[in-house]
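Predict fold of Biliverdin reductase catalytic domain-containing protein; 246 aa.
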Amino acid sequence: MFGAVVVGIGTAGWVRIRDMLTPHPGSPAEKLAVRGFISRRNLDNQQGVSQISVEEAVSRDDIHAAFICTENESHEDYGVFHLTIMKKTVSKQNLETSNLLLTKIGISLPGFGFPAFSGIARLTWLVELFGKLSVSAATLEEDSAKGYSKMTAKLLTSDNRPLTWVEERQTGLPRAKNINFVFDSCTLSEIPAAPRGAVGLFMQDLIHFSAKISDQVSPSQLQGEKERVLHCLELADRIQQLCQSL
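Predicted 3D structure, encoded as C-alpha coordinates:
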Protein backbone atom coordinates (compact mmCIF):
# COMPACT_ATOMS: atom_id res chain seq x y z
CA MET A 1 0.00 0.00 0.00
CA PHE A 2 1.03 3.58 -0.70
CA GLY A 3 0.09 6.20 1.86
CA ALA A 4 -1.11 9.58 0.60
CA VAL A 5 -1.93 12.96 2.06
CA VAL A 6 -4.36 15.51 0.59
CA VAL A 7 -3.24 19.15 0.64
CA GLY A 8 -6.21 21.52 0.58
CA ILE A 9 -9.79 20.69 1.56
CA GLY A 10 -11.97 22.39 -0.99
CA THR A 11 -14.21 20.48 -3.38
CA ALA A 12 -11.28 18.76 -5.12
CA GLY A 13 -9.60 17.74 -1.86
CA TRP A 14 -12.86 16.39 -0.45
CA VAL A 15 -13.39 14.28 -3.59
CA ARG A 16 -9.81 12.96 -3.46
CA ILE A 17 -10.39 11.72 0.08
CA ARG A 18 -13.71 10.18 -0.89
CA ASP A 19 -12.21 8.32 -3.85
CA MET A 20 -9.30 6.94 -1.84
CA LEU A 21 -11.70 5.72 0.83
CA THR A 22 -13.90 4.03 -1.80
CA PRO A 23 -11.60 3.11 -4.73
CA HIS A 24 -12.89 1.50 -7.89
CA PRO A 25 -12.84 -2.28 -7.26
CA GLY A 26 -9.97 -4.12 -8.92
CA SER A 27 -8.20 -0.93 -9.98
CA PRO A 28 -4.70 0.28 -9.02
CA ALA A 29 -6.42 2.91 -6.85
CA GLU A 30 -6.96 0.17 -4.24
CA LYS A 31 -3.22 0.44 -3.52
CA LEU A 32 -3.63 4.00 -2.16
CA ALA A 33 -4.53 4.72 1.45
CA VAL A 34 -5.27 8.23 2.68
CA ARG A 35 -3.23 8.99 5.81
CA GLY A 36 -4.40 12.52 6.52
CA PHE A 37 -5.06 15.96 5.09
CA ILE A 38 -3.30 19.33 5.33
CA SER A 39 -5.13 22.65 5.52
CA ARG A 40 -4.37 26.25 6.47
CA ARG A 41 -7.51 26.10 8.63
CA ASN A 42 -7.96 24.09 11.81
CA LEU A 43 -10.64 21.58 10.88
CA ASP A 44 -12.41 18.59 12.35
CA ASN A 45 -11.94 15.17 10.79
CA GLN A 46 -13.04 15.01 7.16
CA GLN A 47 -14.83 11.77 6.22
CA GLY A 48 -13.09 10.15 9.18
CA VAL A 49 -9.63 11.36 8.08
CA SER A 50 -7.65 13.52 10.51
CA GLN A 51 -5.72 16.72 9.86
CA ILE A 52 -1.92 16.59 10.07
CA SER A 53 0.84 19.17 9.68
CA VAL A 54 3.22 19.52 6.75
CA GLU A 55 6.09 18.59 9.05
CA GLU A 56 4.37 15.36 10.07
CA ALA A 57 3.53 14.50 6.48
CA VAL A 58 7.13 14.77 5.24
CA SER A 59 8.55 12.91 8.22
CA ARG A 60 6.24 9.89 8.28
CA ASP A 61 7.47 6.71 6.62
CA ASP A 62 3.92 5.61 5.74
CA ILE A 63 3.25 8.66 3.51
CA HIS A 64 4.60 8.36 -0.04
CA ALA A 65 2.50 10.74 -2.14
CA ALA A 66 0.61 14.02 -1.91
CA PHE A 67 -2.44 15.30 -3.80
CA ILE A 68 -2.14 19.08 -4.20
CA CYS A 69 -5.65 20.55 -4.21
CA THR A 70 -4.89 24.19 -3.45
CA GLU A 71 -5.17 27.37 -5.56
CA ASN A 72 -3.43 27.38 -8.94
CA GLU A 73 -0.82 29.95 -7.95
CA SER A 74 0.60 27.53 -5.38
CA HIS A 75 1.39 24.89 -7.99
CA GLU A 76 1.65 24.52 -11.75
CA ASP A 77 -1.34 22.38 -12.55
CA TYR A 78 -0.84 19.57 -15.13
CA GLY A 79 -3.95 17.92 -16.51
CA VAL A 80 -4.46 15.51 -19.32
CA PHE A 81 -7.63 15.64 -21.42
CA HIS A 82 -9.08 12.46 -22.88
CA LEU A 83 -8.05 12.84 -26.53
CA THR A 84 -8.47 9.39 -28.11
CA ILE A 85 -11.39 10.28 -30.42
CA MET A 86 -10.00 13.67 -31.42
CA LYS A 87 -6.43 12.38 -31.97
CA LYS A 88 -7.78 9.87 -34.47
CA THR A 89 -9.38 12.72 -36.41
CA VAL A 90 -6.39 15.07 -36.28
CA SER A 91 -3.78 12.45 -37.14
CA LYS A 92 -5.35 11.88 -40.57
CA GLN A 93 -5.15 15.53 -41.62
CA ASN A 94 -2.49 18.07 -42.59
CA LEU A 95 -2.91 21.16 -40.44
CA GLU A 96 -2.99 24.56 -42.12
CA THR A 97 -3.95 26.75 -39.15
CA SER A 98 -5.91 26.48 -35.93
CA ASN A 99 -7.38 28.45 -33.07
CA LEU A 100 -8.24 27.33 -29.54
CA LEU A 101 -10.31 29.78 -27.49
CA LEU A 102 -11.24 29.02 -23.91
CA THR A 103 -13.67 31.27 -22.07
CA LYS A 104 -14.27 30.77 -18.36
CA ILE A 105 -17.04 32.12 -16.17
CA GLY A 106 -16.88 33.48 -12.65
CA ILE A 107 -13.13 33.16 -12.11
CA SER A 108 -11.46 35.74 -9.90
CA LEU A 109 -7.98 36.52 -11.18
CA PRO A 110 -6.02 36.65 -7.87
CA GLY A 111 -4.85 33.21 -6.80
CA PHE A 112 -5.10 31.51 -10.17
CA GLY A 113 -1.63 32.40 -11.43
CA PHE A 114 -0.51 33.41 -14.91
CA PRO A 115 -2.92 32.11 -17.61
CA ALA A 116 -0.28 30.06 -19.41
CA PHE A 117 0.20 28.00 -16.22
CA SER A 118 -3.32 27.94 -14.81
CA GLY A 119 -4.52 26.93 -18.28
CA ILE A 120 -1.72 24.47 -18.96
CA ALA A 121 -4.21 21.64 -19.51
CA ARG A 122 -5.14 23.29 -22.81
CA LEU A 123 -1.47 23.63 -23.76
CA THR A 124 -0.91 19.97 -22.93
CA TRP A 125 -3.94 19.16 -25.07
CA LEU A 126 -2.40 20.94 -28.09
CA VAL A 127 0.95 19.19 -27.58
CA GLU A 128 -0.85 15.84 -27.39
CA LEU A 129 -2.58 16.60 -30.69
CA PHE A 130 0.19 18.26 -32.70
CA GLY A 131 3.49 17.29 -31.07
CA LYS A 132 6.22 19.63 -29.88
CA LEU A 133 5.50 23.33 -30.30
CA SER A 134 7.39 26.60 -30.18
CA VAL A 135 6.20 30.08 -29.20
CA SER A 136 6.45 32.86 -31.79
CA ALA A 137 4.57 35.63 -29.94
CA ALA A 138 2.35 36.22 -26.92
CA THR A 139 0.32 39.10 -25.48
CA LEU A 140 -1.76 39.71 -22.36
CA GLU A 141 -4.64 42.18 -22.07
CA GLU A 142 -5.87 43.01 -18.59
CA ASP A 143 -8.53 45.25 -17.06
CA SER A 144 -8.36 44.76 -13.31
CA ALA A 145 -11.34 47.03 -12.70
CA LYS A 146 -13.54 44.68 -14.71
CA GLY A 147 -11.74 41.50 -13.61
CA TYR A 148 -10.92 40.77 -17.23
CA SER A 149 -7.88 39.14 -18.83
CA LYS A 150 -7.09 37.77 -22.26
CA MET A 151 -3.90 35.92 -23.12
CA THR A 152 -3.13 35.25 -26.78
CA ALA A 153 -0.24 32.91 -27.64
CA LYS A 154 1.00 32.32 -31.17
CA LEU A 155 2.49 28.84 -31.52
CA LEU A 156 4.17 26.88 -34.30
CA THR A 157 4.26 23.14 -34.93
CA SER A 158 7.52 21.41 -35.85
CA ASP A 159 6.70 21.95 -39.55
CA ASN A 160 5.84 25.66 -38.98
CA ARG A 161 2.05 25.34 -39.02
CA PRO A 162 0.45 28.15 -36.95
CA LEU A 163 -1.62 27.62 -33.82
CA THR A 164 -3.32 30.32 -31.77
CA TRP A 165 -4.23 29.73 -28.12
CA VAL A 166 -6.48 32.21 -26.30
CA GLU A 167 -7.37 32.14 -22.59
CA GLU A 168 -10.08 34.71 -21.84
CA ARG A 169 -11.58 35.26 -18.40
CA GLN A 170 -14.17 37.54 -16.90
CA THR A 171 -16.90 37.08 -14.36
CA GLY A 172 -20.18 36.79 -16.22
CA LEU A 173 -18.80 35.40 -19.45
CA PRO A 174 -20.35 32.07 -20.49
CA ARG A 175 -18.16 29.02 -19.98
CA ALA A 176 -17.12 27.78 -23.39
CA LYS A 177 -14.34 26.11 -25.36
CA ASN A 178 -14.15 26.94 -29.04
CA ILE A 179 -11.86 25.42 -31.66
CA ASN A 180 -11.26 26.10 -35.33
CA PHE A 181 -8.75 23.64 -36.80
CA VAL A 182 -8.32 24.20 -40.53
CA PHE A 183 -6.83 21.25 -42.42
CA ASP A 184 -6.14 20.88 -46.12
CA SER A 185 -9.26 18.73 -46.55
CA CYS A 186 -11.66 19.90 -43.84
CA THR A 187 -12.29 22.22 -40.91
CA LEU A 188 -12.87 20.93 -37.37
CA SER A 189 -14.97 23.38 -35.34
CA GLU A 190 -16.39 21.09 -32.65
CA ILE A 191 -14.72 18.72 -30.21
CA PRO A 192 -16.00 15.17 -30.86
CA ALA A 193 -17.88 13.70 -27.93
CA ALA A 194 -15.85 11.19 -25.94
CA PRO A 195 -17.44 8.01 -24.58
CA ARG A 196 -18.50 8.31 -20.96
CA GLY A 197 -16.19 6.42 -18.62
CA ALA A 198 -17.33 3.84 -16.10
CA VAL A 199 -16.14 6.16 -13.30
CA GLY A 200 -15.82 9.94 -12.95
CA LEU A 201 -12.81 12.01 -14.01
CA PHE A 202 -11.40 12.29 -10.49
CA MET A 203 -11.48 8.52 -10.06
CA GLN A 204 -9.99 8.00 -13.52
CA ASP A 205 -7.16 10.34 -12.57
CA LEU A 206 -6.66 8.51 -9.26
CA ILE A 207 -6.44 5.17 -11.09
CA HIS A 208 -3.87 6.51 -13.57
CA PHE A 209 -1.78 8.01 -10.77
CA SER A 210 -1.93 4.80 -8.73
CA ALA A 211 -0.79 2.77 -11.74
CA LYS A 212 2.27 4.98 -12.13
CA ILE A 213 3.48 4.81 -8.53
CA SER A 214 2.86 1.06 -8.36
CA ASP A 215 5.06 0.32 -11.42
CA GLN A 216 2.16 -0.63 -13.70
CA VAL A 217 3.26 1.89 -16.34
CA SER A 218 6.33 1.19 -18.49
CA PRO A 219 9.49 3.30 -17.99
CA SER A 220 9.27 4.49 -21.60
CA GLN A 221 5.72 5.79 -21.05
CA LEU A 222 6.77 7.57 -17.86
CA GLN A 223 9.76 9.12 -19.61
CA GLY A 224 7.59 10.28 -22.49
CA GLU A 225 5.15 11.90 -20.05
CA LYS A 226 7.98 13.56 -18.15
CA GLU A 227 9.35 15.06 -21.37
CA ARG A 228 5.87 16.24 -22.37
CA VAL A 229 5.27 17.89 -18.99
CA LEU A 230 8.63 19.66 -19.06
CA HIS A 231 8.03 20.80 -22.64
CA CYS A 232 4.65 22.29 -21.72
CA LEU A 233 6.10 24.05 -18.68
CA GLU A 234 8.88 25.52 -20.84
CA LEU A 235 6.28 26.75 -23.34
CA ALA A 236 4.19 28.32 -20.57
CA ASP A 237 7.27 30.02 -19.14
CA ARG A 238 8.22 31.41 -22.56
CA ILE A 239 4.67 32.73 -23.05
CA GLN A 240 4.81 34.46 -19.69
CA GLN A 241 8.21 36.00 -20.51
CA LEU A 242 6.94 37.41 -23.80
CA CYS A 243 3.79 38.84 -22.22
CA GLN A 244 5.70 40.51 -19.42
CA SER A 245 8.34 41.97 -21.75
CA LEU A 246 5.80 44.19 -23.52
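The helical segments are 11-21, 54-59, 84-90, 115-118, 120-130, 201-213, 219-244.
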